[in-house]
Amino acid sequence: MAAGIFRLTRAEGGGAAAAAALALLIGGTLLAVAWAAQGLSGLGPWDWRAVWFTLWQAAVSATLSAGLAVPVARALARRRFPGRAALVTLLGAPFILPVIVAIMGLIAVLGRNGAINAALRALGLPEVSIYGWQGVILAHVFFNLPLSVRLVLQGWQAIPAERFRLAASLGFAPRDVARHLERPMLRGVLPGVWLAVFLVCLTSFTVALALGGGPRATTVELAIYQAFRFDFDLGRAASLGLVQIGICVAAMALARWIAIPAGFGAGLDADHRPMAPGGWHRISDTLVITAAAGFLIWPMAAVIARGLPRIPALPPEVWEAALRSVVMALISALLAMALSLVLALSLARGRMGWVETAGMLPLIASPLVLGTGLFILLRGWFAPQALALPVTVAINAVMALPFGLRALIPAARTLHGDYGRLADSLDLRGWARLRLLTLPRLARPLGFAGGLAAALAMGDLGVITLFASDRPTLPLQLYQLMNAYRMDDASGCAVLLMAISFGLFWMFDRGGRLA
Amino acid sequence: MLEFDAVRVTRGPFTLSADLTVPTGARVAVIGPSGSGKSTLLSLVGGFLAPDRGRIRVDGRDITALPPGRRPVSMLFQDQNLFPHLTVAQNVGLGLRPDGRLSDPQRARVAQVLEEVGLEGMETRRPANLSGGQQGRVALARVLLRARPLLLLDEAFAALGPALKAEMLALLGRIADQTGATVLMVTHDPDDARSFAPQTILVEGGMAHPPVPTGPLLDNPPPGLRAYLG
């Protein structure tokens, strides 16, 4: 018989308070945006073009990522080769790779002075440009193809080995396997993959800031930034924010119908593998894997090759920015961990669906919208300069919440189911319960959540750009170096940023595993 | 004395009523068909479920509104009776102080009860390094240490083999004698009921019946129990 809960315990009270604070922060900010917007009449044709571009580029990026993921995942599912495990692990890396670093990598390969254009020039062919809509989409595919491959690969490995055995015993050709086993699986998995990428690309800011712009490659997030920074037209920024909220809410409504799979975590080391046809299938699989690995590794290798030797010579302001960013990322991570732990624990006790809804609120509020709203709310009291860093820390913590909750809620439910009654019957409460039961049992997902939050906060180049800051974060410093065409310093800075982001993730995750 | 005073609980289509008393120091088996509400009865005493109506009293004191850890009750579950990340001594020590900060005399007391259940020198082991029987002994050592007037067993030891289960029940009997505890034991095994519990509460048809002598009940079961026993 399920144990009922009949008292509002301290954990539940804490969870309710945290959820209420979160709802107040995000809801209040959105209200401020809506109030300042005074409708959508202030938006001109330029702004509506940004809306169209946002939807169009997200759809194209999602279609390309999901479509290209299928052959790569199939090749990875049915081939075994040295380095396969490392490659699959590497596919998870873009999730915590700072966006601005990846953009440096793409510029190093595809920029005007990159290897590809050098080769094209040598052959007398026209050059390609990474700036504009094609660059935005390329960068989005760079980030989301690996994630999509992991999701589709999970789908492949979820097909029971017995099915493939049966197919083999019935003498299925690859075409038959595709029809009877693979296509039904893909029909189940691909809509969720597409939607996951689509959602991420809807709020894309950094990519559009660095590679897009102009009438044909401006996203709504970028338009908010431009209205805010260049025109200082708060009303228009708020109107655009309202549009962005509308787009996100509509997309979330879509997500109610299509289950979005979780893109990280365990489950990619299953032992069985589907039938591996030989002949030209083997050759094409090899080509596909090589191309995908090259697409992922080449830009990063190019940045590292250029930037690594440069690190010792980096100017002192870069090191100052690095230190500042690390401190901010640590605070964000601790905030995110505490918040998601409190929310997950009270959710595990059940009966409070609205707490989970509050935890997912950050998904409808993009960072730039929150930044605009907080600025509107706080401008009477504080100077924008003074707001830049605290607002960035707070928004990064909030933005990491949905990921933290995804890792912690199942673990907290298990903990409650397994040991909740024993702990209650022993009167294990408060700090003693946290110290003796909760933290030791949840150390792993908590460390993972903290690592994600720290890495995401470390690499974030979003809200901070709204507030002209004389105390830049490391990603902002990198962006400023790029804009000043100091590409050697920028490369060194990128390597430093990447190393710190991965280092922070590793530290938290490892800490959780060892605890 | 444990008293159910016109207790009634409803969860969807499921209801359970209990109006009965169990005398102090009694050993009572709780038997009945699956889903009849045996575990529910124990959850009501343990504080994991609140009755919709009625009161529960122990030695005249109303415990209906007390949280689980404040009740004069020790409870053993079918599994998960130990925290796997804590040592044997820590697991037992929680019975004395839930915050785990033991004084030296308390530590000595933990060592003493471990010796009494035959686990001397195993203080620093973790549950994963113990056999099933040893894990049961650790849980019983904690019960001994807490010495609460009521002891509830929700199919504890059900996963152990017959010999080991008999050994655990014998140890349980000694501990109950030593602490003078009243024991309520949910079991699926009529033999356990016969060997350990002179009295039995039959839970059937939405109702927990007052305890009756175990032997006659099992020898001449009412129709519902007969179908269950087979």
Topology:
The complex is a heterodimer of chains A (515) and B (230).
Chain A (H helix, E strand, L loop, with lengths): L9 H28 L7 H34 L5 H7 L8 H12 L4 H8 L10 H26 L2 H9 L4 H29 L3 H6 L8 H10 L4 H24 L22 H28 L8 H33 L4 H8 L6 H12 L5 H42 L4 H30 L14 H10 L3 H28 L1
Helix pairs in contact in A: 1-11, 1-13, 1-14, 1-15, 2-6, 2-8, 2-12, 4-12, 6-8, 8-11, 10-11, 11-15, 12-19, 13-14, 13-16, 13-17, 13-18, 15-16, 16-17, 17-19, 18-19
Chain B lengths: L1 E10 L2 E9 L4 E5 L6 H9 L6 E6 L2 E2 L10 E4 L11 H6 L10 H13 L15 H15 L3 E5 L7 H18 L2 E5 L3 H7 L2 E6 L2 E2 L3 E2 H6 L3 H7 L1
Parallel strand pairs in B: 2-10, 3-8, 3-9, 6-7, 7-8
Antiparallel strand pairs in B: 1-2, 1-4, 4-5, 9-10, 9-11
Structure description:
The complex is a heterodimer of chains A (515) and B (230). Chain A has helices spanning 10-37, 45-78, 84-90, 99-110, 115-122, 133-158, 161-169, 174-202, 206-211, 220-229, 234-257, 280-307, 316-348, 353-360, 367-378, 384-425, 430-459, 474-483, 487-514. By secondary structure, chain A is mostly helical. In chain A, helix 18 packs antiparallel against helix 19 (487-514). Chain A is globular. Chain B is an alpha/beta fold and 230 residues long. The two termini of chain B are 33 Å apart. In chain B, 35% of the residues lie in helices and 24% in strands. The longest helix of chain B has 18 residues, at 162-179. In chain B, strand 9 and strand 10 (207-208) form a beta hairpin. Chain B has helices spanning 38-46, 88-93, 104-116, 132-146, 162-179, 190-196, 214-219, 223-229; strands spanning 2-11, 14-22, 27-31, 53-58, 61-62, 73-76, 150-154, 182-186, 199-204, 207-208, 212-213. In chain B, helix 3 packs across helix 4 (132-146) and helix 4 packs parallel to helix 5 (162-179). The chains are: A mainly alpha (515), B alpha/beta (230). The interface between A and B is medium-sized, with 24 and 30 residues.
